[in-house]
Automatic annotation (TrEMBL):
Residues 230-283 are annotated as: Disordered. The chain crosses the membrane at residues 49-72, 93-119, 147-167, 372-389, 395-416, 452-473. It comes from Streptomyces hyderabadensis. Keywords: Membrane, Transmembrane, Transmembrane helix. Residues 237-249, 261-278 have a biased composition (Pro residues). This is Integral membrane protein.
């Protein structure tokens, strides 16, 4: 009920994004049902039916990715202060987000089933539609209810599970493994935060061993305490009674351990130190390049072995695996490339405009980089399709065109949703700049510089990947 109320009272933009999730789920569910219809119409060709079902993984992944991006930007399920007191903690809000995503995707699955039955002529009694091949609609055959239910539940289940995994509650306490490293004595490189000042090692009495390292610290604390007592006695005309003298040192050669004074209690109004911000992690860039190279290798090997697909047939499974690896590699390399683009913008004595644009790119590299990489992979695939088939257009029929439009639309919508999320994340910084007197034209110019820099970096990359992928198919 809470998920339904939040869905009903959301803003128009939130409803539009959820409608996009429902449309993506409807298109993916329709393609899955068409793959089932092809399997029912061709029981003697299970390989071709399995290949069609495997190619449905691309729009399925794009729809789930869009659902996760929409759930991240939903303001109704964002954690706020005071909600935990009424039972709406991070775990409950995560469950609400997953439920809302499941409802949107389930609405799309129902629409896909109705559209499929309408095209088959099962709802109105009219003849089947000629826009879709009759073998994909399984005309004249009964649909197995368990298979239909399994295929239609697939998108809502995967989308809600991905949203729950992405928005799961995390421990807000800083990890000890991410503590900044420091240089210890004699330049020893370690994780310790405390740093010794110059000459601390050779200072008189700094390394006097009383009872090992603990005894040294205790003796130092005792000397500091004694010095403080002498200063107090000299400044106070009515000094307090002296503390009892410590017991004399034993004469049997053993070492006496001095009890250190307890540390002073921290004030009640003291605020704990904020954790050190975690630096941007760009170590996935080499892995992304390696996976991208593997994907291009698979595509080259498959293209040399099979060549271009015939009209009306789906490409081989090797092409699907190669493009999947290529998209994964570009998604992994996207944040690192975006971070590098921000660094290049700040090179060679940057002004205020380039410095602002570069800093924003470096800060938003993880939020915008991965959708950019996926969009680059889709653009490269579109270029390969247009190059291989020349001017004849896609030879995959209406279902292939629907799948291509679904993948392209979902990836572009995900990128725009990530840009909206990044804009909301830096709203406080933008407001602070406006209060300091920064003109709005400068902020718009910085946004234009960021877009131009990303286009200048990812544009040639898309062309290189597309040309390398289309080279074996042309020959």
């Amino acid at each position: 009920m809470l998920a339904l109320r939040l869905t009903r009272t959301a803003h128009l933009a939130v409803h539009l994004r959820r409608l996009l999730v429902a449309l993506a789920s409807a298109g993916t569910g329709f393609l899955l049902l068409c793959a089932l219809g092809h399997a029912l119409s061709h029981p003697d060709a299970p390989g071709a039916s399995a290949l069609r079902l495997a190619w449905c993984a691309a729009p399925l992944a794009a729809a789930v990715y869009l659902a996760v991006a929409v759930a991240r930007t939903d303001p109704g399920t964002r954690p706020r202060s005071g909600l935990s007191a009424i039972g709406l903690g991070p775990g409950r809000l995560m469950a609400v987000s997953a439920t809302t995503t499941a409802l949107s995707a389930a609405l799309g699955s129902v629409a896909a089933l109705l559209a499929y039955l309408y095209l088959r002529g099962g709802l109105t009694g009219r003849p089947p539609s000629e826009r879709v091949a009759a073998d994909a609609l399984a005309v004249g055959q009964s649909l197995p209810a368990p298979a239909v239910l399994t295929l239609l539940v697939l998108v809502p289940a995967l989308a809600s599970a991905a949203v729950a995994h992405t928005l799961r509650p995390r421990d807000p306490r800083p990890s000890t493994a991410t503590a900044p490293r420091g240089y210890g004595r004699f330049g020893a490189y370690g994780w310790g935060k405390a740093r010794e000042t110059f000459g601390a090692y050779g200072r008189f009495g700094a390394r006097t061993a009383v009872a090992g390292p603990a005894g040294s610290r205790a003796a130092g604390a005792a000397r500091v305490g004694a010095g403080g007592a002498l200063l107090t006695q000299a400044s106070d005309p009515h000094p307090p009674a002296p503390a009892p003298a410590p017991a004399p040192a034993p004469t049997d050669g053993t070492t006496q351990t001095l009890d250190a004074a307890p540390p002073p209690p921290a004030p009640a109004d003291a605020t704990p130190p904020e954790p050190t911000p975690r630096p941007q992690n760009t170590t996935a860039l080499p892995w992304g390049i390696a996976v991208l190279t593997a994907g291009l290798t698979v595509e080259t090997y498959t293209g040399n072995a099979t060549g271009a697909p015939a009209p009306g047939t789906a490409p081989s499974a090797g092409v699907l695996i190669g493009w999947a690896l290529t998209a994964l590699g570009l998604a992994l390399a996207g944040p690192g490339l975006t971070h590098l683009c921000g660094r290049l913008l700040q090179a060679a004595r940057p002004g205020a405009l380039r410095l602002l644009a570069g800093r924003v790119l470096m800060e938003e590299s993880h939020r915008v980089g991965r959708p950019l990489g996926v969009v680059a992979a889709v653009a490269a695939a579109a270029y390969v399709t247009a190059t291989v088939y020349d001017g004849d257009g896609p030879a995959f029929g209406p279902l292939g065109t629907l799948g291509a439009l679904l993948v392209a639309g979902c990836t572009v919508a995900t990128l725009l949703t990530a840009a909206v999320e990044a804009r909301h994340a830096r709203a406080d910084t933008t407001g602070a700049l406006l209060r300091l007197g920064a003109p709005p034209a400068t902020l718009r110019a910085a946004a234009a510089v960021r877009a131009a820099a990303l286009l200048a970096l990812f544009g040639p990359l898309v062309l290189i990947v597309a040309v390398l992928a289309a080279l074996p198919l042309d020959h």
